Each structure stands twice: as C-alpha cells, then as structure tokens.
C-alpha cells in the first residue's frame, strides 16, 4: 500500500506550504490541511505569522508520525492499525482533526478492552472506548485492579465508576446467593427431617415401623438410608453451588 500514497518529501510546484519536521521538508497543500484541521485553518486564515509563511516549522513532532497523519487526510485513506493509532491520536487531538480521531476511536473499539486502553481513552476523551474498558475493569477483583500498573493512572471519577459498578455486581450476586442458600437449606433440612420422622418403611424382621435399636435389619435399613440421604445431600449441593 505504501506506494499508493503521495511522497510528501518530493518538491511539488502545486504545494502551497512546506512543513519542516526534524529537518525534513514535507510539501503539502494548505487547503487540504485546513479542510481537515481547524487549527491549521486558523494558522492560514487568521493573522498568524504562519499566514504568509511558505515554510512552517513543527518542533517536537516526529516526521514519520506526521506522514502517517497526512496519509489519513490525503486520499487514499490510510488504514488505522496498532502501529499507527497511538501516534495519530495525539496529533488528531492537537490539530483537532476530529474525522481521523473518530476513525482511531472506531478502530480501538475493535480491540479487546484493557487497562492500558482505558488510560488512552480517558486521555483523548474516547467515550465509547472508555465505556468498553470500564466494562472490562469491573470484572476484575480489587487486588487484581490494585496490582495493575495502569490502575494508578485512572482518573478518580473513572475509578469511582468501576468500583460502583463492581459493588453493584457483587450486591446482585450476594442477593442471588441469599435466595439460593434459603432454597438449599429448605431441601437439606428436608433430608434431615426424614430421619427425625423414622424409617418410613416397614421392617420385615421385627415388624416395627420405627427404628428398633435391637434389630439388625432395622439398623441395616437405617445405615442404607443414611447413605442414600448423604448422596442426595451431596447432589443438592452440586446442583446449587453458591455464587459467592
Ligand atoms: Zn427391625
């Protein structure tokens, strides 16, 4: 794809302004820059000294990053990728090139949520990416959050949002667990109650309907019943695991 883009380092008689970055000259068009960037527009139309200058020095910029930005606003449109998005964002912010910034945001929305991305989103006000990353962070435990290197850089209002959402999640789970425990207790006590109410079956040896301590058949039936009920209790516990 690289060959499809204009080479801004080649002197172009149609170019109306030369940007000087890291000693490199980029021959570009005021109209194109102004069409995308209100900051460049202001430079060219207002009473700035840049208005009449044919050369504008942009100190502190990397020429490679700036060429990537130019590829985004000169056709064909530069694809946003992992390797250029983090260089483009600060430039789109500084020059208020909202269309390219929007494309960066759309691209980042396709990436998995992470704490690092959360910091990027809050730095550049990428609200949909921020929302996605807060969704990611609310699923983490407090120790996991605290040991994350990026946690300290999260703005307090975002930390509050993450913790409030997490708190809400935990309260929901707690409530569900409470209901589950109640239901489980009812079933478990039901099993125990069957012992309290005797065998529930007629003994063929001593003909007793209740447990007879001196009858081996009664004791054997009781032992079998204990085993059956223990299995039943284990099954109830497995069927109804507690969430917390
Ligand atoms: Zn018996």
Short description:
This is BTB domain-containing protein. The protein has 244 residues and is mostly helical. The chain has 10 helices and 3 strands; from the N terminus they run ββααβαααααααα.
- Please, what is the CATH homologous superfamily of the largest domain? Potassium Channel Kv1.1, Chain A
Tell me the distance between the termini.
Answer: 53 Å
Which class of secondary structure composition applies to the elements? mainly alpha
Strand content: 5-15%
Please report the total strand number as a whole number.
Answer: 3
Main sheet record: 3 strands, mixed
Q: How would you write the strand order of the largest sheet?
A: 2-1-3
* Small molecules held by this entry: zinc ion
Oligomeric form: single chain
Radius of gyration: 35 Å
Domain BTB: 15-82
InterPro entries: BTB/POZ_dom, SKP1/BTB/POZ_sf
Pfam family, one: BTB
Protein name: BTB domain-containing protein
Give an overview in words.
- This is BTB domain-containing protein.
- Residues 15-82 form the BTB domain.
- The chain has 244 residues and is mainly alpha-helical.
- It has helices at 30-36, 38-45, 63-73, 82-94, 98-109, 115-124, 127-137, 142-147, 156-196, 216-239, and strands at residues 17-21, 24-28, 55-57.
- Strands 2-1-3 form a 3-stranded mixed β-sheet.
- β1 and β2 form a beta hairpin.
- α4 (82-94) packs antiparallel against α5 and α6 packs antiparallel against α7.
- It starts with 16 loop residues before the first strand and ends in a 5-residue tail after the last helix.
- The mean pLDDT is 89.
- It binds zinc ion (ZN).
- Zinc ion is lined by residues 203, 205-206, 208, 212, 215, 217-218.
- Zinc ion (ZN) is lined by residues 203, 205-206, 208, 212, 215, 217-218.
């Amino acid at each position: 794809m690289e060959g499809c883009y204009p080479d801004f380092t080649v002197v172009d008689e149609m170019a109306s302004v030369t940007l000087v970055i890291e000693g490199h000259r980029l021959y570009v068009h005021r109209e194109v820059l102004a069409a995308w960037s209100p900051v460049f527009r202001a430079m060219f139309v207002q009473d700035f000294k840049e208005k009449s200058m044919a050369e504008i020095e942009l100190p502190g910029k990397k020429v490679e990053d700036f060429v990537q930005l130019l590829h985004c606003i000169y056709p064909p449109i530069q694809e946003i990728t992992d390797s250029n998005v983090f260089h483009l964002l600060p430039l789109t912010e500084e020059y208020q090139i909202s269309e390219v910034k929007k494309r960066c945001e759309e691209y980042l929305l396709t990436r998995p949520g992470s704490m690092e991305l959360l910091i990027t989103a809050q730095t550049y006000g990428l609200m949909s990416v921020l929302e996605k990353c807060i969704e990611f962070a609310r699923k983490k435990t407090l120790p996991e959050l605290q040991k994350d290197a990026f946690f300290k850089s999260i703005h307090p209002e975002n930390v509050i949002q993450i913790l409030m959402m997490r708190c809400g999640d935990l309260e929901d789970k707690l409530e569900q667990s409470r209901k589950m425990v109640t239901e489980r207790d009812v079933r478990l006590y039901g099993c125990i109650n069957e012992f309290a109410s005797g065998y529930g079956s007629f003994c063929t040896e001593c003909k007793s309907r209740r447990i007879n301590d001196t009858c081996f058949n009664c004791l054997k039936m009781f032992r079998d019943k204990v085993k059956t009920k223990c299995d039943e209790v284990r099954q109830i516990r497995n069927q109804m695991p507690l969430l917390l």
